[in-house]
């Protein structure tokens, strides 16, 4: 059945979901899916994994994006599926065809593939993990002090997403120090408690640890613990500094505890669970994000589909014991960060348009706050406001507002766990991915890379964090074409912030460095190596959870 033809522009996420729902309710299922060969099936499965599985799930049962199971996709038909893949949606689905990331042939292949039953994803055993484990420099051979005179706590780790590498850049001189081979499409970087080690996790499930004390910082160990992953963090509580790391997997749904120095896998725990509300079993209950407490030996894991927050006590891992407090929260949990006190963890339930607040001291659900359409805070942004006291802010993929929530129930109870301020961004539509500030900066910075408007997605918006007024809109220089400005990150002292110019894999771009007081562009970090830069992580700010 051919439902519609859409080639003129982006369509809304609501329309996408609505068309699928309407089709399921009114049309007869196709007797058989369109033909596809074994080789095409294999190729399409890889495209789906690379571009689609994160939002729609390996089993295609939906999460951030709608379910794409054959009972639905066959009723849409190949032409309508091609249109959605080509054009994207205003709700945040990328326009894979318009961007030139997927060819028309690949889009047709993917549209046909989606009408077949998803192939069963492989599992991964401890034995298989250990077969991938490599230690390039044993702990006893590593230096006992930095082998260089550089200000390593002001280093930046820069993700070069589509080339599978991480660049280490000196935040003082802005010079490239080294490029490290990591996993495919690195999602995040995290620093150890000491800051010496930087950990990466790729979407291919490969974790790497980089020693910043080496004369030329490089990876000292790696291991593949999942087929698909998004999160990694380390043990930060006193007495456990740099001792453990933990990876949260999308597939197989699990978390894996690793030795912090060598990445030797120590323990696998399945996260397949039950939806918190309906109590139905969900095999694909994925770990969306992780934060590490500074005040207890716990990791906070967000179990996306189940709508649960797990507080994982790692203090007795060496004795074979892991204690988990499971807190029912809301679907579908995505990303989040600490409040200023680092007692409360705030995480987006982005398909329910809510922020979940977890009290990690009392180990209970503190509040659920209604916000805007599809919140996407990254880590969020913390502000000590003269009127509202400590607040935490999130942007949204689905609309142009920023929501700021009071986080001080003792000092400012009248504002606690309420949206105390809505900040409107210019233009129409959403598309925000990250917002950021710094205690030494008077500004709140926000990007808009998923907005379809070419001008908005190349813009950075600067707000006064006391008045919330728009101070300035920064534009990526016109010489960089077909790009997106993404991911703000301050340096150690908050005197400047860095922005990635995100282009295609074959298109060298830049990292832009702005003066945090004058808002003037002070440096363009360029070179043939600057390809698909996305997230940037300052060592000091990451180790201290400053955002």
Overview of the structural elements:
The chain is mainly β and 547 residues long. It has a domain at 13-113: Cytochrome Bc1 Complex, Chain D, domain 2. Helices cover 13% and strands 36% of the residues. It contains 8 helices and 35 strands. The strands form 9 sheets. It has a 5-stranded antiparallel beta sheet with strand order 1-8-7-6-5. A hairpin with a 6-residue loop joins strand 27 (435-436) and strand 28 (443-446). Helix 1 packs across helix 4 (70-76) and helix 2 (38-51) packs across helix 6. The longest helix is centred in the first third of the chain and has 14 residues, at 13-26. It is globular. Residues 1-17 and 19-29 have low confidence and may be disordered.
What keywords describe this structure?
single chain; 547 residues; mainly beta; Cytochrome Bc1 Complex, Chain D, domain 2; five-stranded antiparallel sheet; four-stranded antiparallel sheet; 8 helices; 13% helix; 36% strand; disordered N terminus; heme; Dissimilatory nitrite reductase (NO-forming), cytochrome cd1 type apoprotein; Haem_d1_sf; signal; Cyt_c-like_dom_sf
